[in-house]
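Researcher: Structure prediction, please.
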Amino acid sequence: MSTPVETKPRQRRRADTGVVLSERRRAERRLGWMLAGPAFVVMLMVTLYPILQAVWDSLFNFRLTAPGDKSFIGLKNYGVILTDSLFYRDLGVTSLITVITVVVELVLGFAMALIMHKALKSLRGFVRTAILVPYGIITVVSAFAWFYAFDINSGFINSWFDWLPGISEDTNWFAGTWTSLFVIMASEIWKTTPFISLLLLAGLAQVPDELTEAAEVDGATWWQRMQRVILPNMKAAIMVAVLFRALDAFRIFDNVYIMTNGAYGTEVLSLLAYRTSIGRLEIGLGSAISVLLFLCVLIICFVAIKLFKVDLAGNQGGK
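Model: Predicted structure follows.
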């Protein structure tokens, strides 16, 4: 006579996903929601109202100079924006800055993370503190510093690097599109690469030393260990770093506003929304641009999550 198979206690199968959840994992999830829940509610209350207000204002023909003439026009503001070539030009500039800065920061940040990870214990605190100095500077202050460094009248870059081809005492970095974008992106990379390096350093700390040592014993080269052991185990950290930085880079405003104010084809979407809402007092059109900017940010989140395909839930303990 066969005996029935004893099922494991403290486990249940969710019918929707088929994932077996242990009692420990359920307790960890409850604890996570209890710890993060209050902050999530506060952030939702603070951010939800401005978002909904912007969506609502974008449906009206609304100018601050004539608040009494406010009228509902539906999606016409979006039609005006989406048929304007200026919007697509600014979207292209914003996307270009985002892609280049994030890629360069990812490479430099990973190199810095390796240095900090391999640094001697006696020097780790000093190295990490020194690397974090640019990130601790206020963005406006950093932008002004870079502007004055490259300015043709007050800057020192031309005199220091006039031995390089294309650079002389008369080089005006802010008189052209590509030179202006170069300074803007360089200032962004200089300031925010430490943030990327810290996130990647946390990912490096999660890679078991036993795996890299075993790969080295098996004769794997440095690049093979990097490609097959280190990077796969850092996938979650890389996704978080790229996602956070891409969202921040896509909303760039301070550096562009201070250095060029959008001149010579360097205007970005955030500056376009600012000029429309604050400069021209077109609250309806400015709100529509802000809503479109928000939708672009959501698309970036969706693409990043789908691209990396990281199962964060599967990385939890207590299986």
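Model: The mean pLDDT is 83.
Researcher: Thanks, that helps.
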